[in-house]
């Protein structure tokens, strides 16, 4: 049996009671923290609460060589992930591989950043379009700095449809956690290169440390938000499309957005 468990958003206490019970009863517990991680805890604290050793897996262990899956043929294995295990991950691939090996699989859900964003900002979840992810820029073989333009295109398409865009920010082993500030600078760089005007004068909302006691939620125009200090990671960004008047009110009152947001609301 292989049980996928979402750990929630911030610390070891965000696991559900069902999840905790499953971990305590498991023969082996594996975890990956490259798709998301819980910044308010660490492996040691998790192991203490669970009363179990947690074996950390790399992206390669999960996506390329999941040999450890074979252990689930005759043992109870739990696989832990930050947030919800199936939201903005490719872990359905792992589940399908396990099913092909004749291993029974099960899901225990966790709070996800995808729903926390709606809760914290007041932006309604059914008014979001396709999500985007901003990776760190990289150098080509010729030494040219390459910035992905895909997130900009997704924001542009959603904006044209009046939809909000949720923008996940890269977690990289070497380059670290991308901040809201860097993400906005990269989007403005793409915009400048193309001579387009999707981002300029547009509203944006930054969220830091969702799930902690004091998450930071700040709305403003892109140019102002670019230099706002959001503090420690993890960070995520939303570029709102058309605002319903309740959404605009929430951004002004709950995220200290400018009053100008109210004037543009419908
Ligand atoms: C690829 S997504 C994975 C989402 C995860 N499976 C979930 O359901 O929450 C991870 C990204 O979401 C954002 N994120 C995750 N947890 C967060 C938190 N507690 N606060 C702010 N942003 C967060 C960060 O941008 C991070 O790089």
UniProtKB/TrEMBL annotation:
HAMAP family: Diphthine_synth. InterPro entries: 4pyrrol_Mease, 4pyrrol_Methylase_sf, 4pyrrole_Mease_sub1, 4pyrrole_Mease_sub2, Dphthn_synthase. It comes from Methanosarcina baikalica. It catalyses: 2-[(3S)-amino-3-carboxypropyl]-L-histidyl-[translation elongation factor 2] + 3 S-adenosyl-L-methionine = diphthine-[translation elongation factor 2] + 3 S-adenosyl-L-homocysteine + 3 H(+). This is Diphthine synthase. One of its GO terms (molecular function) is diphthine synthase activity. CDD domains: DHP5_DphB. S-adenosyl-L-methionine-dependent methyltransferase that catalyzes the trimethylation of the amino group of the modified target histidine residue in translation elongation factor 2 (EF-2), to form an intermediate called diphthine. The three successive methylation reactions represent the second step of diphthamide biosynthesis.
